[in-house]
Design a protein that fits this description.
- The protein is mainly beta.
- The chain has one domain: Immunoglobulins (Immunoglobulin-like, Sandwich).
- 0% of the residues lie in helices and 49% in strands.
- It has strands at residues 7-10, 19-27, 49-56, 59-65, 75-82, 86-94, 99-106.
- The strands form 2 sheets. The protein has a 4-stranded antiparallel β-sheet, with no helix packed on it.
- A hairpin with a 4-residue loop joins strand 6 and strand 7.
- The N and C termini lie far apart (40 Å).
C-alpha cells in the first residue's frame, strides 16, 4: 500500500520576488475512515493522513490537521509570498506513524 501513496506538488515555475503564489498539493491515499466493511463484513481499520506540514528553507509556512471526513486523495492548496529562492519541504503523517515526504524547489526571479 505504501508504494501506491504518491505526493504531487505544483508551484509556479519562476515567481517574481514578493509575488504571492499558490502552492497546490495532492497525495494519493485511500483515507479509510474506519467505518466501512470489507467483503467479509469485517471493519476496515481507520488509516488517514492526519497532518500535513510545509516548511520553506526550514521555516514553517503551512500546517493542516486532516480528519476522517476528508475524501480519498486529499487536495490542499495555500498561498505564500515568494521572497527568496529555496526549497519547500512537505511532510504528510499517517495514523500508523508513516511519513510521506516530498520537496519542490522555487527559483525566484
Amino acid at each position: 500500500m505504501a508504494d501506491d501513496i504518491k505526493p504531487r506538488i505544483r508551484v509556479p515555475a519562476n515567481p517574481k520576488k514578493g509575488e504571492v503564489i499558490e502552492v497546490k498539493t495532492l497525495i494519493t491515499h485511500p483515507m479509510e475512515t474506519g467505518q466501512r466493511k470489507d467483503a467479509a463484513g469485517a471493519t476496515i481499520p481507520r488509516k488517514i493522513v492526519n497532518t500535513m506540514t510545509v516548511t520553506f528553507n526550514g521555516k514553517p509556512v503551512f500546517q493542516a490537521k486532516l480528519e476522517p471526513a476528508i475524501s480519498a486523495n486529499p487536495y490542499l492548496s495555500f498561498h505564500m509570498r515568494a521572497e527568496e529562492s529555496g526549497t519547500l519541504s512537505f511532510t504528510w503523517k499517517d495514523d500508523d506513524g508513516a511519513e510521506y515526504k516530498a520537496e519542490q524547489k522555487i527559483a525566484v526571479t
